[in-house]
Design goal:
Layout (H helix, E strand, L loop, with lengths): L1 H38 L5 H7 L2 E4 L8 E6 L2 E7 L2 H7 L31 E5 L10 E3 L14 E3 L6 E2 L20 E5 L2 E4 L10
Antiparallel strand pairs: 1-9, 2-3, 3-4, 5-6, 6-7, 8-9
Length: 204
C-alpha cells in the first residue's frame, strides 16, 4: 500500500512538472509569435524611406540637361529647359491629346502650359502612362534616331508613345494621358524637394 502511494505521488508530481513546463513553453512560443505579429503593425525603415521626400540640388544642371532621382521607387526627371524649348511648347497644342492637362495627373500649381512651378525646370515622373515603360529623353529637334518631324521630347520605345518637353502626350499614340507630375517644392533657388506639396505655388 505504501509503495503504491509513493508511485502515485511521484506520478502526480511528474504530471505537475510536465504541465508547468508545457505552460511555460506555450507562453514563450506565444510571445515569439506575438512579437512578429505586433512588429508587422509598425512600418519598416524601408517602407518609411520609400515614401519620404527626396531633395535634389539642381545648381549644376545645364540648359538642356536632365537629371534623374528616385522617389517611391519611381524615376523622377528634372529637365532644365532652354528658352527655345519653352517657345516650342506653345506651337504644339493642336498635335497633343491633352494640351491643357485636364485629364492628367499633376498638382494644381503645375496645371499650366509649362506644367511646372518655374517654367525653366520640368519635374516629371519618367514612366510612360501606357504600360509603365521608361521613355527616352530626346530633346533635340530632328534627333537622328527619331522619325522625321520630331520636335523634341520623350519617346517610349516599347509601343511608340511620344510626349513633348512638358510631358504632354501626342495624339495617335497608345499612351492615354500626359506624364505624371509629382508633388514638389523649391527649398531654395537651387534645391528641389520631390514628394512634398508646394505652398502657395512653392516659390522659393
Amino acid at each position: 500500500m505504501s509503495e503504491t502511494k509513493t508511485i502515485e505521488t511521484v506520478n502526480i508530481k511528474r504530471r505537475q512538472v510536465l504541465a508547468g513546463a508545457t505552460g511555460v513553453v506555450g507562453a514563450v512560443g506565444a510571445a515569439f509569435v506575438a512579437v512578429p505579429f505586433l512588429g508587422s503593425w509598425q512600418p519598416s525603415e524601408k517602407a518609411k524611406a520609400a515614401g519620404a521626400p527626396v531633395d535634389a540640388d539642381i545648381s549644376g544642371l545645364q540648359p538642356g540637361q536632365m537629371m534623374t532621382l528616385s522617389w517611391r521607387g519611381k524615376p523622377v526627371w528634372i529637365v532644365r529647359r532652354t528658352a527655345e524649348m519653352l517657345e516650342r511648347l506653345a506651337t504644339l497644342d493642336d498635335k497633343l491629346r491633352d494640351p491643357d492637362s485636364n485629364a492628367s495627373i499633376q498638382p494644381e500649381y503645375c496645371q499650366n502650359p509649362s506644367r511646372a512651378i518655374k517654367p525653366e525646370y520640368l519635374v516629371v515622373v519618367g514612366i510612360c502612362t501606357h504600360l509603365g515603360c521608361a521613355p527616352l529623353y530626346r530633346p533635340a529637334v530632328g534627333s537622328a534616331d527619331m522619325a522625321a518631324g520630331w520636335r523634341g521630347g520623350f519617346f517610349c520605345p516599347c509601343h511608340g508613345s511620344s510626349f513633348d518637353l512638358a510631358g504632354r502626350v501626342f495624339r495617335s499614340v497608345p499612351a492615354p494621358t500626359n506624364l505624371e507630375i509629382p508633388p514638389y517644392m523649391y527649398l531654395t533657388e537651387t534645391h528641389i524637394r520631390v514628394g512634398e506639396d508646394a505652398e502657395s505655388g512653392g516659390q522659393a
